[in-house]
Automatic annotation (TrEMBL), chains A, B:
It holds the Pfam family Peptidase_M32. SUPFAM superfamilies: Metalloproteases ('zincins'), catalytic domain. Gene3D superfamilies: 1.10.1370.30. InterPro entries: Peptidase_M32_Taq (IPR001333). Its EC number is 3.4.17.19. The lineage of its organism: Bacteria, Bacillati, Bacillota, Bacilli, Bacillales. This is Metal-dependent carboxypeptidase. It comes from Caldalkalibacillus horti. It catalyses: Release of a C-terminal amino acid with broad specificity, except for -Pro. Keywords: Carboxypeptidase, Hydrolase, Metal-binding, Metalloprotease, Protease. The keyword Metal-binding applies. Signal peptide: none annotated. It is an enzyme of class 3 (hydrolase). Belongs to the peptidase M32 family. Broad specificity carboxypetidase that releases amino acids sequentially from the C-terminus, including neutral, aromatic, polar and basic residues.
Length: 512, 512
């Protein structure tokens, strides 16, 4: 980080107090992250969960109180004054920007409300797991109703223009709103459905049967352990575990924890979950070491974060070039399972597209439709058009409308996602934004690394990683997502590159 | 818990404030416990450890500040006044007693000192691991010297009568001092060395070769998983992992985490480590649910805690009756490995006694000598007779003096234990106290459950567990260790029962 050598005394003093608060908040958040990892990776014994929820509630409340403290308010007053703010170096300005957004958003929320919400969601996570495993939405209804009520109240506290859901969207993607998203999504929906129609009419189907075989989970773990370091994930600064719903969390730049999900009957699950989370993990590990423990540690936004996971999982990980490099290794790890399958057949099969029930197992094309369904439901719940008790029915109707299929059970439908259980309303659109950002960024990389395809086929992933590190990862939250995408690609986010990418890919896979 | 219904208003108000502080402190300690578990079970990636140490330091300092806060002082002033104190129910009185001891001990310690010490020890743990793995004491010398300096300063802050080491002993075993310990140890040392001489002269040696075979670690894990529930450890309220140095930690009564150590070349390591930690674990799980999250959660003292682990590991776990019940299961889990070994030979072999280098692998008899060596070194370091740089030499001389053998490397000598790296001076004697308490308690159990041996041979461990729960576990820290041992056994702690037990056992094993 550069130095703030020329600061006026009161600015220097405010920055010092601000830094002290920031360190404490980031320490707390690091510890809370560890507790969340423990809970979500299945490490917390069942009978310890209630007590853990109380402890999480206590530390979350402390963190919140520091964030909205008078001291923080006083620091931000000084540091956001234009004549003072312009004295700061870029990093300090960004740290203040991040804090100010959080402060403004939350300063009116009573700390008891945050505490209650933490306790509620820590418990709701396990209720959701139970409801899902018992296939009984009614078990979850009461918790989810409370969570939605909290979200509506939070939206009012945060403040918004237009639709109340904008307040929640803005949490994950600063500057995003319902109007922009409706436009991006309607464009993408139309092209996706056209492409899906052409795919379904194509006589050239990939051979999905090649994955209809059981593969030993220990062997799958070995393969995952084999690819992670090749993709430049640093296992001295992170780890890979298992959970029902894979996730990645950066506790610090030196402790990035990912989980994956092994299915004996579908080897794709672990491979692509691992690559997906590895994309997140590389981002967290790649943030400038000086930003560790500051407010600009971590990714620029959820959408940008998701672009990194989608880029690695889909644009790199489902390419012919990637498997040109890895296919022999895969065959060696799973002897006999793919002996009769050519590289081309394998690559076409991992790019199969067809309507399916489970978002996390959905293909690259239909995935975006899954997101649009969740987006509409969240918008309807927060806007008051929908009620929680009706969700199973609404879900199934929308699945029919967008994807032409209906889940036969709620576990395969409305109960499939963890997100609502932790109150992550406004989060789902990030996944689709991730695809949009990823395609736009990939377009730029291919211009700047003209032999991109060959680099991947050679397994020179450090070159790709180097580019991402230099252009995106190192910056953490230094730039807003809007500024970053323009800095990196020269234009604002739009659907053009994703549509082009999908059309090109599926034209090849399905010989359209 | 009973109710405090008749409290005067200012006492009720002090108790309410006290309870509020207590909850917060216990929440923090629960979270710090989780972080420690993560570190010590090897879960924290190497590059994340420095940042974690800072976060631990921050929350430890917060906990400390709450403990010595003006508010805590004011509450304790009210609640310890005799006329107020006697209004409280037994549980509240005990909670106040525990807090008052901690408050008096630490109120003069500057919070910066605690914070520095936390950071130092979090880092020292990994330095110790490195020094041990590289067999290089010099790597550890600087950290350990700083830790000893801190301990000496802490002793001054805590206050003591007589030897400064008394201040540290008192942390783990309230009421203990160098004079009492010297007496207990000199008695025990003399009888142990006499017994060891007779054992070494005996022609009837157990067949230790039966353990000189490699046993697959996955099979060992299965056996450990098999015995834990039989011993009444509740896996819905705890878990078993692995670490270099096995430990148990109770984050709450519903989340008790233990680790064990698997050695392919010695199956005894995991079996007896697991039983040992299970003894601790049962105690933590067995504390009255109402005490969870209060200052009387957890064991009465380190010595009493250790009595529970020693009781299960040695008095129960190395008995002929225990293996009468489990031996066929053991043989089934490790097919062929023990086919030629009779139950009696097996039981004699697990009770082999001979001088050895590593404390955690030492037998029940010589173990106490290992403790005496550490006790003398600690006393000398804190008293200023010894310097850290001389420890490798001092260690080796004492090993020769007590056990008649000398380590050839420091990894097998002075570097073998984790304890000093976390500043656990005064802790080691607890292990020997544990043996003393355990033998004295066992003497009482055998009077109250006259068919004790048959109960174990029948695998009716719930009967033994029930007795421990009723007489010891449920009480947590309600009683001081001195009061508890008198309540349970009718007399103060003395060496008689351990000496008797050891003489009886080894007379049988070695046909003396």
């Amino acid at each position: 980080m550069s130095e703030n050598q020329t600061l006026l005394p009161d600015v220097a003093s405010a920055l010092e107090s601000f830094t002290h608060l920031e360190q404490k908040i980031m320490h707390y958040q690091q510890l809370l992250g560890l507790v969340q990892w423990d809970l979500q990776s299945g490490g917390t014994p069942r009978k310890g969960q209630a007590s853990r929820a109380e402890a999480i509630g206590a530390l979350t409340a402390d963190t919140f109180e520091l964030f909205v403290s008078e001291e923080m308010g006083a620091c931000l007053d000084v540091l956001t004054k234009p004549e003072n703010n312009q004295q700061l170096d870029a990093e300090s300005r960004a740290r203040v920007r991040v804090a100010k957004k959080e402060y403004d958003k939350t300063k009116n929320i009573p700390s008891s409300m945050n505490r209650e919400f933490s306790v509620l969601t820590a418990k709701a996570h396990h209720i959701w797991e139970e409801a899902r495993s018992k296939n009984q939405f009614s078990l979850y209804e009461e918790s989810l109703t409370k969570i939605v009520d909290f979200q509506r109240q939070f939206a009012e506290y945060y403040g918004y223009e237009g639709h109340p859901y904008n307040a929640l969207l803005n949490n994950y993607e600063p500057g995003l709103n319902v109007e922009k998203l409706d436009l991006l999504f309607s464009d993408l929906r139309q092209k996706t459905i056209q492409l899906l129609d052409r795919i379904q009419a194509s006589p050239h189907k990939p051979q999905k049967e090649i994955f209809e075989q059981k593969i030993n989970i220990e062997q799958q773990k070995e393969f995952n352990k084999f690819i992670l370091p090749k993709l430049n994930f640093d296992l001295d600064a992170g780890r890979l575990d298992e959970s029902v719903h894979p996730f990645a969390i950066g506790l610090s730049t030196g402790d990035v924890r990912m989980t994956t999900r092994y299915l004996e009957e579908d080897v794709r699950s672990a491979i692509f979950s691992t690559m997906h989370e590895c994309g997140h993990g590389l981002y967290e590990q790649g943030v400038h070491a000086d930003y560790n423990g500051t407010f600009i540690q971590g990714g620029a936004s959820m959408g940008i974060h998701e672009s990194q996971s989608r880029f690695l999982e889909n644009i790199v990980g489902r390419s012919l070039e990637f498997w040109t490099y890895f296919y022999e290794d895969l065959k060696a790890h799973f002897p006999q399972h793919f002996d009769q399958v050519s590289l081309e057949e394998f690559t076409r099969a991992i790019n199969l597209s067809e309507p399916s029930l489970i978002r996390v197992e959905a293909d690259e094309l239909t995935y975006n439709l899954h997101i649009m369904i969740r987006y509409e439901i969240e918008k309807g719940l927060i806007g008051g058009q929908y009620e929680v008790k009706d969700l199973p029915q609404i879900w199934n109707e929308k699945m029919q409308d967008y994807l032409g299929i209906t889940p036969s059970t709620d576990s395969e439908g409305v109960l499939q996602d963890v997100h609502w259980s932790f109150g992550g309303f406004g989060y789902f659109p990030s996944y689709c934004l991730g695809n949009l950002y990823a395609a736009q960024i990939a377009h730029t990389i291919k211009q700047q690394i003209p032999d991109f395809d060959q680099v991947i086929a050679n397994g020179e992933f450090d070159k790709i990683r180097g580019w991402l590190l230099e252009n995106i990862h190192q910056y953490g939250k230094l730039y807003t997502p809007g500024d970053l995408i323009v800095k990196v690609t020269g234009e604002e986010l739009n659907a053009k590159y994703l549509v082009e990418y999908l059309e090109q890919k599926y034209t090849e896979v399905y010989k359209l």
